[in-house]
Amino acid sequence: MRILVVSTPVGALGSGRGGGVELTACALVAGLLARGHRVTVLAAEESVLPTSCLAAELWTCCGSSQTSAQHQQRSAAITMPADGLLQAFWRRALLEGPGAGFEAVINLAYDWLPLWLTPLAPLPLFHLVSMGSVSEAMDLAIAELAAWDHRRLAFHTRVQAEDFCLPQAPVVLGNGFDLDAYGFCAEPEPLLGWAGRVAPEKGLEDAAAAAAQLGLPLAVWGLVEDQAYAAAVEASVPAGTLQWRGFLPTNQLQQQLGHCQALLNTPKWNEAYGNVVVEALACGVPVVAYRRGGPGELVQHGLTGLLVEPDDVTALAAAVAQVGAIERRACRAWVEANATRAVLAERVEAWLLAGLT
Ligand code: HBI
């Protein structure tokens, strides 16, 4: 098929500002290309596609970024900057899309406009919802679209989809990773890891507290989105507990991540999936996570990591002390079976075909 994939309007692909949706975009595009589909990516200017996606055509738009949906009040009205990137994306997709012969459009933005346009668009729009519930406006737009045609929506996990009012069982796609990009590490160092956007909904403070309790250093990878929050976490533990490693491209991240005894995953919100959980598993690193959101569904307790009662830092630390019992090879094996690009692309293709009948 000829497929248009529309990226997030919160930042350029490769900038790290798009968070997990950047990884999803590249996995989905590379997976569809590998299955012989022709793919065009519509993203913010300055976006960079990884080598695995270079066979895709890149369309770019300029305009002001959309405000991150999860950092607004739940009751906030729908807002778009007057010169918004979101509007530019969808004007181009709907004006040029039909002439370009796209049989389907996959939207990766967590925004109101593309959802609202779907019933009146000249092209079939499909939406991979990338977060749990963060606003009333999006909850309503998702519920209304699901009532119109639930086949146009897909989610990363069942627990994420449960946040929304859906008339039928949702399409659940998981996510996909390029295993060649992740090296397996059999022998860890006395080091714990945490990865993700450094922002309140990600709960870094709990992982820091657990590492301090255990007297182990905690390497922190990710874009510091909220400086004040990061400073507060740094101040909450003894100096030297946290090693701020910054936002690294995958090849550098996986090289460092593999040395961890465990990845701590401490979401405060209903994390839709938890890319970093699977990235750690791909390196052979067991995951100790709160039994919450996508990580609570992805981590196989006792096999690929340990799940603890959400927000219980003492239980988190106690579980980390037990993680040596987890077979590191079993962590990578789980990813090979459940979260490769090929698995994701098969599921995406089936989703589109089902929605087009
Ligand atoms: N906020 N408005 C808006 N649009 C997005 O596409 C978006 C977002 N916040 C976060 C985000 N996307 C991604 O980081 C997550 O979906 C992974």
From TrEMBL:
Occurrences of domain Glycosyl transferase family (ranges): 187-334
InterPro entries (alphabetical): Glyco_trans_1 (IPR001296), Glycosyltransferase_grp1 (IPR050194)
SUPFAM superfamilies from the UniProt entry: UDP-Glycosyltransferase/glycogen phosphorylase
Keywords recorded for this protein, A-Z: Transferase
The keyword Oxidoreductase is assigned to this record: no
Family annotation (Gene3D superfamilies): Glycogen Phosphorylase B
Molecular function terms, GO-annotated: glycosyltransferase activity
Protein name per its UniProtKB record: Glycosyl transferase
Organism name: Cyanobium usitatum str. Tous
